[in-house]
């Protein structure tokens, strides 16, 4: 291989550069996902009800990560997937934290006269549990994709701050095709989704585990949609409660897009980002992440 090509693809130790690993990972996830999608459609309807479609994305992310990690002689658990009591504790803590964040944003909107809630008829505990299972699949998929192998290799190549900036921008841009992404809503939602990506990145870096970001993502979506009845990133959701808006501006309430398109949502998420930035983590912050 010519020297200039070797330098472009390989680092000083002869390993594939992290940028190519990130690109290759995303391409492999897409390829595995394309293979799994038709197989999923062949499953009996009852199994598809139990096994959400996002599960194929989870499997694709895990399979792609395993392939790259095997080439690096590293275990899958090195991504922050060591399933033990600490993992479960962080998962529960993150879920409660995500619930609290959305509850706080909704409380601000309510206190400023933006809405009140009406109990939704026909939505019971079974519906809440089913929605939690679905949102867990969503959280697993998106965190494996955006805070898993690709993010962690980008952090090696660009540094943690560079990876945070790049993946926050990517995470926000990939939501631009969501329903309701127009006008001022697009600006507020983009800001909040980018902040959420920073928040979730800090959750991984401060703990060295994917459990905390998975939990926060789950609690955030489930509380916003399944409990409080707001849209989730523009997708309508039937909640335990239904918000009745009082005609206040959408920058206050988020409108049909959800709390992610509101000023209270941005402020609450921004405050959480600052809190995690200030917290060095139980094991020394950045050093924990670099060893994961």
Please mark out the parts with pLDDT under 50 across 5 or more consecutive residues, or reply none: 283-292
The Cα radius of gyration reads: 20 Å
Order of helices and strands: HHHHHEHHHHHEHHH
Number of strands: 2
Morphology: globular
Helical proportion? Answer: 55-70%
How many independent structural domains? 1
What integer is the average pLDDT? 92
Describe this structure in words.
By secondary structure, this protein is mainly alpha-helical. It has one domain (83-290). 67% of the residues lie in helices and 3% in strands. It is built from 13 helices and two strands, in the order αααααβαααααβααα. The chain has helices at residues 3-9, 18-41, 45-50, 54-71, 85-111, 125-147, 149-158, 160-173, 183-207, 211-227, 250-253, 263-278, 286-290, and strands spanning 115-119, 241-245. It has a two-stranded antiparallel sheet. Helix 2 runs antiparallel to helix 4, helix 4 runs parallel beside helix 6 (125-147) and helix 8 (160-173) packs antiparallel against helix 9. It is globular and about 65 Å long. Residues 283-292 have low confidence and may be disordered.
